Prior knowledge:
The protein is 44% helix and 22% strand. By secondary structure, the chain is an alpha/beta fold. It has a seven-stranded mixed beta sheet with strand order 3-2-1-4-5-7-6. Helix 6 packs parallel to helix 9 (191-201). The mean pLDDT is 95.
Amino acid sequence: MDIGLVFDEMFSDYSEKMERMVPHYRALIERMVSHLPHSSQVRNVLELGAGNGNVSALAVAKYRNAYFQLVDASEKMIESLQTTFADQMNIVYDLCLIQDCDFPEHSFDLIIACFSLHHLPGSDKESTFKSIYKWLRPSGQFTYADLFIDKESEEHRIFLEGWKAFVVKEDHNDWEWLMDHYAKFDFPNAEKDQIEWLRKAGFQNLSIKKFDQYWVHLIAQK
């Protein structure tokens, strides 16, 4: 199934699912937003995988005079965003897979990706980092929160045990659904690989904050 259709099916309770299934979800969003650039530095913002607007709403409130481009692969998520921001004339929406996006060089001051890039296999993630670097203006910022781990690594089994303990506190059925989704649609990569790809793309100034080792907020400055 196409990833857009997957999120069409879960858009109505997306926030609740994320809070039940993703450790530190709100903490990562709060940290991401608290470390955004000063409003005077940002005029054009791109969000890759905007979902239902949990991050978008906070960014739009911070950058009231900025132009926003919100990308998502789910038609229902895009419709939800259009409803949420119906009175905002400074937002455009793109129904698009992240790896298929294309924008002119130096289009954005800030690019946001919050729990979206893990849906890209490693090769697509690496090429997307190159695109992000190209799309950013000089001194622009890429802010990125996600799961950083290699599914084939030795620590992955131990990681899954801890993740399961978090999820089943709420509902055992959540874990079964999550592991099916994770097997089919999630392609996280190790921190060391992603840092290497970011540096190869051109980013040299990186800042990383980890929650329980594998839930990561990363800032890359151009």
